[in-house]
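Issue: ligand-bound run for molybdenum atom - logging full I/O for the record.

Environment: standard queue, default settings, no custom constraints.

Inputs:
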Amino acid sequence: MLEESNKISRRQILQWAGAGLVVNVAGTLLYDPIGRISMPVNEWMGALLLSPQPTPDFPISAIEPDKLIVNSYRGVPSIDPATFKLKISGAVTNPVSLDLATIHQMPLISMVTRLVCVEGWAAIVQWGGVRLRDLLTLAQPLPTAKYVYFKSADGYYESWDLASSVHPQTLLAYQMNGQDLPAENGAPLRLAAPIKLGYKQSKWVTEVVVTSELLPKRGYWEDLGYEWFGGL
Ligand SMILES: Nc1nc2c(c(=O)[nH]1)N[C@H]1C(S)=C(S)[C@@H](COP(=O)(O)O)O[C@H]1N2
Ligand SMILES: [Mo]
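Outputs:
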C-alpha cells in the first residue's frame, strides 16, 4: 500500500530533476537551469520530499472496537451523501469540489493505527480512505502553501502543518474497522492519522483550505488552550 506514495514522490522528484531544478532537503530551490539562485522556499515540494516515515501498522487482529469512545463536542451533524461535496481551496492553483463517487474511485488505503484521545483513552482502529496528499495533489498547492485548514459540518475546525498533512498515513477515511464509517465517527469523511492526537482528527470534514499563514482561529480545542501541533 505504501508503495503508491513512494511512486508519486519519486515521479515528482524525477520531473523536477528533468527540469534541471535542484532542491535541498528543506525544499529550498538551490538553482534553476540557468544557474540563478532565484526562487523562494517551496513549502509544498519540501513537505513532499521531507514527508516522515510511516509508523508501523498493527495486525488487523489487534483492532479494539470496544475501546473506541465517540467524542463529539456537539452531536452528529446530518449530511446527505448524495449531494455531499468536499471542497479544496485557498492557496492552490486548481480549487476542486469532489463528490463521494469521485473520492471513492481514488486509491483506497487501509491502515491499522492507534487513535489517542487526551482525555485518557486509546484504541487501535482500522481505517480505509484516501490519502490527503492525493487530494491536495489534485488541487496543486501554491509554492507558498504551509498550513491546511479543515472545516467540519458540526462547526469544528482544525489546522495542520503541511508536512503532517502530506504524511502517507494521513487519510480522509470513509471506512472504519472494515465497514462504512459510522455517522457518529465522522461519515462521510474524517481525518485519520497515527501521527496526531485525537482532537486533530476532524470528523465530518466538508472543506479543506490551504493557507500560507497560521490564522488566529487554529482549532476548536486549541483556541481553548490545547497545544496546536498535537503530535504523537
Ligand atoms: N468534527 C469533529 N471532529 C472531532 C471531534 C468533534 O467534536 N467534532 N472530536 C475530536 C476528538 S477530541 C477525538 S478524541 C476524536 C474522536 O473520534 P471518535 O469520535 O471517532 O472516537 O474526534 C475528534 N474529531
Ligand atoms: Mo479527544
